[in-house]
């Protein structure tokens, strides 16, 4: 591998693919989903929805009611982690998405209120302020259950306190390779966070992961943000270091992965989401290392998000999964630039 | 929170009492309130009975802490949602906000076991005034924060917190 490429890899960590902030709240004098009766759930639904629709941020937004929501939309919400299976079954769940699509309000999930804000290269502190402002406005209208010791009461004990979760979506293939599990344990302990992997390839090289703060009480929202940002930087640096090491030692594996990825994505007639994910992971690695030219990281990530089962199912109604895989392959080839090239390592 | 009369059942009725202009909170279970009320209807005036009910608390104040062990909480049932200790312990999912008071010590144990040294809320506070008890705690928290801000010579924050205190 060229020294120049190595330098670029070091300069372009680009490990962070996106972020998500989540804030949970519950109405005063109302039971949680586990114990609430149907009239209570209906009551909560109406109160929260009416309050939220008064806010500027949700004006012109879209309301998805679980009673009459189409299947594909529900699948998308499930995939994004906004809702759980129980929510899907319940007739009292409502989702409100802001017009700019960045903010999502989930009503009657595990908690009465769950606010999400998703971003890519946004300032997390600014996003938190946005969430906090919405929280203030809703609180004025609804009143939230709060106690001096356990802070904001949540359905799950582990969410009590701030009810605040910061998630980083990371591309850390080297770090999640099985040999490096010790590193991950260290980060989990050091920053009190959890790491979840979306896929683990047999080569152990391609992987998308997310990290989340486990601690929500005894720590302020600002401290959570700082802690998670520090963790993300530390993890990125470790990932960079390992990439250099791995690319040097196993360059043939990496080169094979990248070339295979280009070939398959360009020519496949059928492709599953899992396969797409793995190949795009290699392409990302190649882009970051400066080996793959003509394709930006943004573009690679957009191809990724347009390959998910939810996205595909939103566009075609196929009873046969082969139809889906065919459609996915066609979509990828439409989006992949013509002039995509790779340099010899 | 345990009923201050029988010290067995969780308190679900919260009342304020005034002694020499000072307000104090008292907490009873529904059964105790009902018993007292039916006695009052049979025998004397309501205010007399309420006086007795609250008086019974004053006499036995201080014994509270002993009964509030996680062990004792294993036999409780939440009066609002019916949640039991074994129920919430299974998946740490609670039935209603009141459970945070009913199973106070057990929840503290669960959080401490997950390596959180001091599981006491230290983040954002609600802006709207809630119940008086909560307000009192917010006041205390804000006072501590003012002291800290002054210690750090952060006068701007101190002034902001002071405004917040005044608005409560
Ligand atoms: Zn009692
Ligand atoms: Zn309860």
From TrEMBL, chain A:
One Gene Ontology CC term in the entry: extracellular space
Entry keywords, A to Z: ATP-binding, Kinase, Nucleotide-binding, Transferase
Example GO molecular function: ATP binding
Domain Phosphagen kinase C-terminal: 15-242
Top-level taxonomic group: Bacteria
InterPro entries recorded: ATP-guanido_PTrfase, ATP-guanido_PTrfase_cat, Gln_synth/guanido_kin_cat_dom
Record EC number: 2.7.3.-
An example Gene Ontology biological process: phosphocreatine biosynthetic process
Leader sequence residues: none
Residues engaged in binding ATP: 18-22, 165-169, 193-198
SUPFAM superfamilies according to UniProt: Glutamine synthetase/guanido kinase
Family the entry assigns: Belongs to the ATP:guanido phosphotransferase family.
Designated name of the protein: ATP:guanido phosphotransferase
Lineage, broadest ranks: Bacteria, Pseudomonadati, Planctomycetota, Phycisphaerae, Sedimentisphaerales
UniProtKB/TrEMBL annotation, chain B:
UVR domain segment(s): 136-168
Pfam families: UVR (PF02151)
UniProt-recorded Gene Ontology molecular function terms: cadmium ion binding; cobalt ion binding; copper ion binding; zinc ion binding
GO biological process: stress response to cadmium ion; stress response to copper ion
Protein name (database record): UVR domain-containing protein
Organism placement in taxonomy: Bacteria, Pseudomonadati, Planctomycetota, Phycisphaerae, Sedimentisphaerales
């Amino acid at each position: 591998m060229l020294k120049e490429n190595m330098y670029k890899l070091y300069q372009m960590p680009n490990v962070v693919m996106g972020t998500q902030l989540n804030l949970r709240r519950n109405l005063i004098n109302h039971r949680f989903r586990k114990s609430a009766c149907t009239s209570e759930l209906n009551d909560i639904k109406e109160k929260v929805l009416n309050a939220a629709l008064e806010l500027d941020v949700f004006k012109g937004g879209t309301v998805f009611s679980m009673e009459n929501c189409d299947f594909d939309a529900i699948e998308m919400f499930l995939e994004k982690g906004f809702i759980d299976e129980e929510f899907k079954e319940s007739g009292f769940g409502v989702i409100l998405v802001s017009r700019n699509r960045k903010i999502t309000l989930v009503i009657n999930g595990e908690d009465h209120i769950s606010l999400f804000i998703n971003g890519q290269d946004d300032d997390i502190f600014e996003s938190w302020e946005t969430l906090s402002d919405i929280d203030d406005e809703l609180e004025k209208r609804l009143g939230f259950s709060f106690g001096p010791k356990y802070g904001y009461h949540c359905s799950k004990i582990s969410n009590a306190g701030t009810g605040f979760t910061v998630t980083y979506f990371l591309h850390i293939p080297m770090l999640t390779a099985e040999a490096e599990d010790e590193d991950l344990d260290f980060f989990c302990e050091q920053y009190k966070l959890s790491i979840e992997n979306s896929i683990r390839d047999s080569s152990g090289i391609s992987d998308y992961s997310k990290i989340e703060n486990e601690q929500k009480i005894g720590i302020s929202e600002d401290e959570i943000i700082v802690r998670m940002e520090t963790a993300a930087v530390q993890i990125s640096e470790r990932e960079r270091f390992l990439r250099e090491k791995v690319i040097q030692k196993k360059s043939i594996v990496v080169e094979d992965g990248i070339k295979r990825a280009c070939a398959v994505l360009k020519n496949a007639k059928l492709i599953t989401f899992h396969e797409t994910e793995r190949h795009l992971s290699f392409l990302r690695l190649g882009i970051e290392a400066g080996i793959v030219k003509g394709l930006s990281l943004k573009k690679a990530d957009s191809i990724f998000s347009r390959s998910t089962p939810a996205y595909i199912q939103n566009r075609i109604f196929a009873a046969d999964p082969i139809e889906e895989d065919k459609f996915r392959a066609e979509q990828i080839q439409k989006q992949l630039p013509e002039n995509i090239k790779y340099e010899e390592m | 929170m345990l009923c201050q009369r029988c010290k067995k059942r969780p308190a679900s009725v919260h009342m304020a009492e005034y002694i020499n202009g000072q307000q104090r909170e008292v907490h009873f279970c529904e059964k105790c309130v009902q018993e007292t009320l039916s006695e009052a209807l049979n025998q004397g005036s309501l205010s007399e009975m309420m006086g007795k009910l609250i008086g019974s608390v004053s006499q036995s104040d201080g014994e509270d802490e002993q009964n509030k062990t996680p062990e004792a909480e294993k036999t409780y049932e939440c009066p609002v949602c019916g949640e039991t200790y074994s129920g919430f312990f299974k998946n740490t999912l609670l039935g209603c906000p009141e459970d945070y008071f009913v199973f106070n010590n057990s929840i503290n144990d669960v959080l401490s076991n997950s390596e959180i040294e001091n599981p006491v809320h230290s983040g954002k506070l609600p802006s709207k005034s809630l119940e008086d008890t909560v307000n009192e705690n917010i006041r205390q928290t804000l006072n501590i924060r003012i002291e800290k801000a002054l210690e750090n010579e952060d006068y701007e924050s101190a002034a902001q917190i002071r405004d917040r205190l005044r608005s409560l």
